[in-house]
Amino acid sequence: MGVSAAGSSGGSPDVLVVGGGLVGLAVAWRAAARGLRVGVVDPAPGGGAARVAAGMLAAVTEVKYGEEALLALNLESQRRYPGFVAELVEAAGEDVGYRECGTLAVALDADDRAELREVYAHQRRLGLPVSWLTGREARRLEPMLAASVRGALLAEGDHQVDGRRLCAALLTACGRLGVDVVRGSARRLLRAGGSPGGRAGGAAGGRVVGVRLDDGTELTAGQVVLAAGSHSALLEGVPEEVLPPVRPVKGQVLRLRMPSGAGAPGAFLGRTVRAVVRGVHLYLVPRLNGELVVGATEEEMGYDTTVTAGGVYELLRDAHELVPGITELPLVETSAGLRPGSPDNAPVLGPSGLDGLALATGHGRNGVLLTPVTADCLAEYLVSGRLPEVAAPFTARRFRRSGAPSAAGAAPAGPALREVVA
Ligand code: GLY
User: How confident is the model over 55-68, as pLDDT tens digits?
Assistant: First the structure.
């Protein structure tokens, strides 16, 4: 039997968000704030990759060659962060651990230094606000750095936020706006005219009308947003051509405890410190509450979230090279999360090509950073049917081969997507 997601207020909600991780909750909150009735479905709301993530807001220090479009989106979201956080803290009455602390990217030896100088030159060419420091200058800022550090670049605009507290605050803020959060696993997309119990994909039906859960419950809604992170490609009933090309990319992360908070005089570390060690991105993110997050591996292991001895060993070994004193700190937590990776490392936003289904997934290494711009753009799209210009390069259209047939029953990919891009 079909039930509405917004059960308490009666009737179907305007929007059902599949996925109650950071992105899904932020979309729900922003859409509800625009006056839509919103439901969220997730087996563990507030869980997901953001619970594991370090919460670096690293538009500048994550920049890669050839990813200028993604850089523009990352910078835009970084620009929106202070306002987003202020509104959320006001709405939820909870702090989210946003810290404007800057980031120091460090070179450990002469080869690293040569490579980091290239990165620095690239960043300067792009007009990004970075400055070069000698090893001595870097150690003056962060005295716990290894004596071998040969140079560093300082990105004073790359900050941090606590993903766990962000999720908790979003759950509160959603609750205050009447968002109905349903604990359950969405198994299958439902479409008007589809045969009950029909096979995944294929020609079953027209406009999207909701989802069926694992336990058979059907949740109906005016529109569905697929924001299920690394699980976004697993929803049955989505035609193959429409399914977002998202895969899980495992990241193992450690949490240690510093003797005092990052803001205290003589703190163990005062700002985010990162390096590329043996080709692996290593970062240490110190929080005001004394937590030190060390990450992260990058592994193509499917849906495996096992914390391995090798993963922990490599992170500690590399972190010890960067900050030798780290081995004195208590290790309080190990965890592994799954980034929703996409073929070009950029998110998939807005129209799916299927009437009634929108996408907010594929954020890869930048999910926490991209949350504000994703939520704003999706809310606008859900309200007006038009996707803001800043998100236009990130629709699913970029993955469609020209001349490929559109999904059976799906709106034709080209025109449908063009119409909704403002
Ligand atoms: N944002 C850093 C990571 O994904 O490891």
Answer: 999 999 999 999 99
Where do the domains of the chain lie, and which CATH numbers do they carry?
3-51+166-246+343-402 (3.50.50.60), 99-159+248-341 (3.30.9.10)
Q: Whose C-alpha lies nearest to ligand 1, atom 5?
A: 296
Instruction: Name the residue type at position 36.
Output: L
Mean pLDDT of 257-266: 92
Is the CB of 55 inside a 6 Å radius of any atom of ligand 1?
A: no
Q: How many helical (H) and strand (E) elements, i.e. helices and strands, does the chain have?
A: 8, 20
What ligand 1 atom has the least distance to the C-alpha of 368? 1
Q: By alpha-carbon position, which residue is closest to atom 1 of ligand 1?
A: 365
Structure tokens belonging to residue 10 = 């009666």
Three-state SS at 171: helix
Distance 347 CA to ligand 1 centre (A): 14
The finding on whether 163 has its CB within 6 A of some atom of ligand 1 is no
Q: Is the pTM above the cut of 0.70? A: yes
